[in-house]
Structure formats: C-alpha cells, structure tokens
C-alpha cells in the first residue's frame, strides 16, 4: 500500500497568510485534533468508502487530510493513498501514523516513498510520475459550512487535483447537515457571535447548497449524495473545548477577543450537552456530495 503525504496550501495564491492565533501551539492543536476531534468523522469516512467500494488497489487522493485518520482507514481496505494538507503540524502526525501502520504490516516492506512529505509545488508530481495510474477517488472530508471563505478556498485545490484523475472519477465533498439536526451548531455559533461584535468575519452557518456550489466552481458534475450521523462525544468538558478549538473554527473569535474568553463561552454553550457522568454528547448529521470529474 503506497502512502504519500504532500503539503499543499488551499488558500488562493493571492490570499494573505492567516494571522497567527494568540496563544495557539501548532503542535498541541494538531495533537488535539488527532487524539480528540478527528475520530468524530469516522462514520462519514466509512460510509463514503463503503459506497464507493474502496478496496485493494484503489488510489485515493485526500485533500485536507489532517492527521491522516481517513487515509489510515482507506489503507485498511488495501487502498494506496496520497494526503494533502496546508497544516505542517498535522501532516507530521499523519506521516507518523502511516509509518507506524507500515511498520506493523507483515511480509513486504512499505513501498518506495511511503510517508513522504513533499513541498506544495510538488503536489501535481505526486500523481503524474511515469508509471502511475490516475487517482480513482478524490476526497475533501474537511467539512464545508463553518468558515466564511471555505467555499471559495477549496476551489483552487480541487482544480489542481482534478487533472490527476481520469474522466468521471468520483470527488467527495463533505459538509455540515441542517442546523436543526446538528447539536454542535449552537456551540459553533459562539465563533460567529464573538467575531460579529468586532465585525471580523470567520464563521458562518452552513448553507443548503454549499457542496453543490463548490462542485460547480470546480467544474464538477454532481452524481449523488448522502447523510451520515456523526455524533460528537467527549470524555469531559475540557476535552470538548480542546477538540473544538483544534478545528480552527474559533480562530477568528480568538483574534477578535482572546483565548480565555472563547474557552469560557464554548464551555457555557456545552452545558446543555453535559451528561450526569461528566461526558459531553452532541448528535450531528453530516452531508456528503459525490461529484464526477469532467
């Protein structure tokens, strides 16, 4: 099973770099994402892989692969994976995960280039080297519908990835479901409330046609969709706050106020979801769109 991790910035080339988040530790946030938050979307990953019959030999290109959990799940089905993300700390953890997985495989050693982290300008090369077949599946599992510019910012990455796949290749986009079916929506609104106070955007509610809009911008043809229950469950309130902060949704709120204020308001928004044993449980529904390359 071949695994390649490629660094790629999904922001448009003319966009200004994001300002650092006060008090943020990139490595710590990446580990919180890996250890707390990323697993919440496992039902989404599995539903997509099952529907599209990911199996031995399937070549998967994961945009915004995070710390690699979705890639790992694909490799358990025998897929060959390439990961792309703009966060170097997350990619470092993904590389560790994939290398550890390869170390536990029996018989043959990992394929050449397994766990390689390539610079942004080499992303296309990762799929077009001589002898490499086109990708069979492109995924963008990072949920659309929680940041002000996420619809626009994903488009350049998709346009770069599309030539690496053949005609009619499935491209999967993911996003939040209807707010009334997502308990976490009320918590995410903390980000909007705090940024709106200072007229600094950074969060918005999900829109019904977000995924279709992204597909249209990238020149993709919609070809089916689905909904998956992805409840967010945490061991305690502190873990919930750390996990939610690791998503990046609250970065704008932290810049507009400060980290302590954001943590306080997230904690208050979590109170309705605290259970008697101290755990936090929030039912959510996520939506995915299957589109096809031209």
Number of E strands: 10
Principal-axes geometry comes out as globular
The DSSP helix count reads: 11
The largest beta-sheet arranges its strands as 4-1-3-2-5-6-10-7
Share of β-strand residues: 15-25%
Distance between the termini: 28 Å
Structural class: alpha/beta
Q: What sequence of helices (H) and strands (E) makes up the elements? A: EHHEHEHEHEHEHHEEHHHEE
Give the proportion of residues in helices. Answer: 25-40%
List unreliable stretches of 5+ residues.
8-17, 106-120
Q: What do the pLDDT scores average to?
A: 83
Biggest sheet statistics:
8 strands, mixed
Cα radius of gyration in angstroms: 19 Å
Question: What is the topology?
Answer:
Layout: E1 3-7, H1 26-37, H2 42-51, E2 59-63, H3 69-76, E3 80-85, H4 88-103, E4 116-118, H5 125-128, E5 137-144, H6 150-161, E6 170-176, H7 185-197, H8 210-218, E7 221-229, E8 232-234, H9 237-245, H10 251-256, H11 259-270, E9 280-282, E10 285-292
Parallel strand pairs: 1-3, 1-4, 2-3, 2-5, 5-6
Antiparallel strand pairs: 6-10, 7-10, 8-9
Helix pairs in contact: 1-9, 2-3, 6-8, 7-11, 9-11
What does this protein look like?
There is one protein chain. The chain is an alpha/beta fold and 294 residues long. Helix content is 38%, strand content 19%. The chain contains 11 helices and 10 strands. The strands form 2 sheets. An 8-stranded mixed beta sheet has the order 4-1-3-2-5-6-10-7, sandwiched between helices. A two-stranded antiparallel ribbon has the order 8-9. Helix 3 links the parallel strand 2 and strand 3. Helix 7 runs antiparallel to helix 11. The longest helix is centred in the N-terminal third of the chain and has 16 residues. The protein is globular, with a radius of gyration of 19 Å.
